[in-house]
Amino acid sequence: MASRQTHHLRGYLFALFATVLWSGNFIIARGLSGDLSPISLSFYRWSVAVLVFLPFSIRQFIVDFSTLMKHKLYICINALLGISIFNTLIYRAGHTTTAQNLSMIAIIFPVFIVLISVIFFKEKISIRKIAGIIIVFTGATLLVNKGQISNVLNMDFVVGDFWMLLASLIFAIYSILLNFRPEGLRLIPFQLSTYILGLVFLTPFYLYEQISSPQIPFDYGSHVFIAVLYAGIFASMSAFVLWNKAISYIGPVKTGMMYYSLPVFSFIEAYFFLDETIHLYSILCLILIVTGILLAVVQSTRNT
């Protein structure tokens, strides 16, 4: 009994640590908004991730190369959505909205999954799910309008919140595609392939940006360099490893539940590192969003 409890505890801790590492990515998105463009930050992040991940995965990549080539279109689409577009949109959103808002909107993606499943896969939707979706979008609407009903009527909002909503939609599509990963396509080679291809897709945009409006090279001893290393190593590879370890210990459902704690860590980090004020409306919107997600996504014990 004790060993089983220890087993579960490790799983929850792995999931929690992964979530903490991911929460830091939103601090970077906001904190570096004045130092690097979204394209540059995304390019540097995935350059680091590829360099760090390569030694651990190159052998499996070579062995599975023929399998990877067989599914190249599937891998390309996943790389474009999950690596290139999704992360760049987060960094774009960070230029105009807070890290708190980024993290709260990020956890909405399961609701988009439900909506996509209903519209495109004709999945049945219950009253419980409909109620959950309404609550989530009520929370999100109040959030992007700073808790003011008058702002909703006047269409007074921050554009970064809508970039982040688009990022969440992209991540939902990416997550659905992951469910269709072909048999025989192993996780590690697949992951390395998406990292490399995501970087390849970013490269022409990065080069164009550097040629058309070159940025001053950042100081390699600066906070920018440390943040890029964090994003490339901890928010990419380390979080991925911890998350998959958690799934092996406690399963995907319980692991996924831990992801909804992400805004809590982002709130704390944003307060200490970015001097962001934690508003009452932000906490209320977070409660609405998490409540709605639990209603829309999590099955009842009887159904489970």
TrEMBL record:
Keywords: Cell membrane, Membrane, Transmembrane, Transmembrane helix
SUPFAM superfamilies: Multidrug resistance efflux transporter EmrE
Membrane topology annotation: Multi-pass membrane protein
The keyword Phosphoprotein appears for this protein: no
Residue ranges annotated for the EamA domain, each copy included: 10-144, 160-297
Record has Nucleus as a keyword: no
Localization in the cell: Cell membrane
Membrane spanning residue stretches: 12-31, 43-61, 73-90, 102-121, 130-150, 162-180, 187-208, 220-244, 256-274, 280-298
Coiled-coil regions listed in the entry: none
Domain of life: Bacteria
Pfam families attached to this UniProt entry: EamA
Cellular component, GO, one term: plasma membrane
Name of the protein described by the UniProt record: EamA/RhaT family transporter
Biological source species: Oceanispirochaeta crateris
